[in-house]
Fold each of these.
Amino acid sequence: MLNPIEGEIFCIDKPLRMTSFAAVKKVRAVLRTHLGTRQVKVGHAGTLDPLATGVLLLCTGHATKRIDELQAGVKEYIADIRLGATTPSYDLETQVDATYEWRHIDRALVERVLQEQFTGTIEQVPPSFSACKIDGKPAYKLARKGHDVEIRPKTLVIDEIEVLQCGLPDEPTLQIRVVCSKGTYIRALARDIGEALNSGAHLTALRRTRVGDITIDKCLTLEGLVEKLDSETYVSPEQAAADRLERERIENRERAARMKAERAARKQSTATQDCGLQHKRTSQIK
């Protein structure tokens, strides 16, 4: 029996071209129907771009309080990169705006650059086409209007980075696996790798395969989750509220009992110390 009001965490494999908010909206609509109320809180733990697929954690009810904890977990990505060309968004959202020579690059050079420049603590400037705030406005809204966007670099950690596939020297393509900290933009990483190779680069595909301990094999498709939700039984909002109230009453009684016991222990300790001090004084008088 599911209890979305008290809190559930659902793990989905976000489909291509769907925004993370659209996934939240879909699940929230299904839960509202089954619970018979619009008062259903749903949020996600870590945005995935529309052009990315993979692990997306959806939290409901009181479990939304765990979002910061969940999205702080280490993340793993599989990224496809094309060398020799850049786009304003660093991925396929926008058209190629410049091309560069790439035939001087081989796999050995790529692997050396990745290990020497993109492992451990690094500085990264987030993309202009991102949700980073500039004077209170998302950077992507300004970038799409053609405004120049200046974003400060952020410190992040790359725990692991490796080449999985390499099309060089025939094709300027790479597939890499990245294990990184919260806040890493793989699009920006593709940009920086291109520059470090004295070329250009942009992201052509991205899949998040892990968030914390949650791996892609533990995730349902969005359609699969909806089917699961349609087949489940639910704790009603009224029962969920009553259960929470009873738990809070029990916790308050237990807290009060602990505080009473601690006060009694402190009082006993003080009395023992006073008795010892009095005995010492009496001995000194004798």
Note: The chain has three domains: 9-71+216-233, 75-211, 236-286.
Amino acid sequence: MKPKTFSVKQGGSNKPKGHVDFKSAFYFQTPIWIAEAPMFLKNTIKVTDKYIKKAEKNLKDKLKNEPKWKKDIGTFGLSYHSESFSNDPKVKDLVQFIGQRSYEFLDWQGFKTQDHSLHFTEFWVQEFSEKGGGHHSTHQHWNQHVSGFYFLKCSEKTSYPIFHEPRPGAEMTKLPLKNQEQITLGTNQVHYKPQPGTMIIFPGYVPHEFAVDAGLDPFRFIHWNIKVVETAISKERSNKNELQKK
């Protein structure tokens, strides 16, 4: 595969003797897909209402057993986090859409996905506390191939996702940037301000976080992770499960 190249003029107008112009080739890039998918918004908000209510109740019940100082703080800085619900038939269309786009995301990158199957390992909905302070520190989800977000409730006043440089060697040797406001090849983090219906798909290895939420507007989103497994392994596990049932 030939590298993508760009002609870059070096040395300015007064080139010294023996000057040569190099072409820039870009390898090891990190793709992030972003799209607007409002067609699932109304139904998904309605379906996730019950999951958020259940998560809110579970969190408040848990706080009853915490020390007094935690009870006084309440849900500040926390989020209502559901169980995984990719098998809920009421979100079948959304799950199928995400699965297909995730397959295309891997195929587009050049991965051989034949003889492999995609499996949702997590499919949660979260809503940050109305008291503010909700956030997620920088993290990755282990042993995953595709991760993503689908934003249900958000605004200019709410939290937003931040993505970090995924290459350890590059991160540990970064130099100061000439302009922190510009996104350049040296940038070590980027953020996106979503709107309701925004969908983001990214490689599972990319570290990400959510900025601290002020609690001014509701902030709700779905976060999923997908693992790619060889079809032969999937079938073997399925057969074992069938035998155990018998």
Note: Residues 32-167+186-245 form a domain with the Jelly Rolls fold (CATH 2.60.120.620).
Amino acid sequence: MNKLATTFTGLEFVNPFVLASAPPTESKLKILKAFESGWGGVVTKTIGLHPVENVAGPKTIYQRTSETKPYVSRMKRMETVSHSSWNWELISDKPLDLWLPDLEEIKTTYPDRMVIASIMAGAGSDEEMDNWSKLATSCVNVGCDAIELNMSCPHMDRKDMGANIANDEDIIRSILGAVTSAVSVPIWVKLTPSTSKLVDAAGAAYESGASSISLCNTFPSLPLMDPETMKFEVEVDGLVTSGGLGGLAILHQALQRVSDISKAFPDKAISGIGGIRGFREAFNFIVHGAGNLQVCTAAMEEKGSGGVGQNPGGEGVVRQYEFLRPAQLSLLTERRLKGPWGLAGGGDGAVGVNLLNGETIPAKCNLSVVAGDLLTLMTPGAGGWGKP
């Protein structure tokens, strides 16, 4: 007997743990690896019909903090813990006709695992409603078990998509009307948590045929600026824009929104998302009304300094030196602002970090040290090769 088996929106899950729509579900290889590792289901990276051009350079960063140095930064430092993820990545740039054979193979290979296709189109015209219908029908026809409607991405490049529709109830009804008339599988609706109309929007979705509400997607936010370099921690040629904050930093807000929906609609299904790393977070989502659990940041967070890829980049090394007497310290190090580049779709390696008694010091410097000072040199990780 499988004690973790659950039934959610009429679907039989071998366990309630699902990879959320994000980079971990952006390709056939990654999804197959997820099922091999034991995940009960996946929600694919969002599939659309419009041309997508993602930002150049890093699309997701991971921010950390510590008790002794409690500022939040993507800079890797000794003895830090996860705080959040931040991304400005758009939906999948892989076209529908490439997704469909991959989805069919995934479902054929793992028939007992649930494949939920995340889809997105626009609003305000019959053409866009037809796009919603086409996406849903195409994915269901190759075996997808359910559809998740992405109405919550906080940084879409079109005003009629994602969180830009701001939980407009008329738009929600029209999209659900188009999708429910085209397919008969369960429809999950991923609403933006960043409006005061969330409960009303959820009600409109349920009334229009939604089987579940998925909460929470990332919250709109800006990247941090390093006060020492006066540069944003993620940028493209010095330019930044709004992105989405996720991970542990949004856990309490996500629980509040799940609770609000559960109290308003106690007999309806909710898929909980936002800061789940283990049992304690999962338990809290279930207590507040979630019947299914989606995980993102914890599954993709950097575990080392090497860039991701088909061939991951090598890890940097950490060297520590304790000074036994006063001395003059000269450093001439590189790759402390930008990590070594990945190639052929591989991820960049992490930047190097120099610390003196736990404080970041410049890549090139000449400093006086005293007995007992501790120097830590964290060398950069190598870039990865090949799209993971």
Note: The chain has two domains: 6-300, 318-378.
Amino acid sequence: MTATTIARPTGPTPGAEHRPRLVRTAGLVALITARELFRRRGAIALALLLPLTFYLARIDAHWTALRLLSIGLGWAAATLALFTTVSSRSAASGASPTALVLGRHTAVLVLGWTISALYTVLVELTIGDDLAHPGAVPLMLLLTVTVSAPFGSLAAVLVPRDLEGALLLLAAMALQLLVDPAAGWTRVLPLWSTRELSSYVVEELGTQADGYLWRGLAHGAGFAVGLTALTWLLGARRLRVIHLPEPR
């Protein structure tokens, strides 16, 4: 008696086909977004010069200089995310809302992280020898950009017009600078982690140093994940496909 062999399809599963397509589409959207960003030369110059101006203005006070640098960098990254718009041709060509949001977010993050790396070198060259933990400077700046980029994207979703969105971001960042960061309620602000990490970088905190570091990392990571998820949900809802009824 011969056993019967049942042949199973060897082609890729639908899920396996969907994942590479999503990655390719998101990469294409990221490339389009990067090109749009570099067309805004004024915005790129602002992203580079604004944090530098803040930093140099208070370089004599290291804690304040680093906090101003981080907030200025965060505002620049959030504003770039706000002004970044994906071409309508990307949506019309079949790109999913997830690919659109992921691609745009990736482009802004890569640019922001690059600027963070440049400022890390500047800080190390200027005041690095006077800091308690200079090795944490890139961590602070990278985390600031990682939180600020989805914050700017969220502002773009909530306030579709550029001017109103920019004013909203300006108000939020100004609030970060004006309030007493030691107040408990300030933890609801997206860049509260900057205060903890800048204290860790600058001051000799003794046995409390690890507490400042982990509080800052936990707060920043939580806001980055939460803001990114909220941006994706709202963006996917706004960019969802609407099926029109067939004409009779």
Note: Confidence is low (pLDDT under 50) at residues 1-10, 86-92.
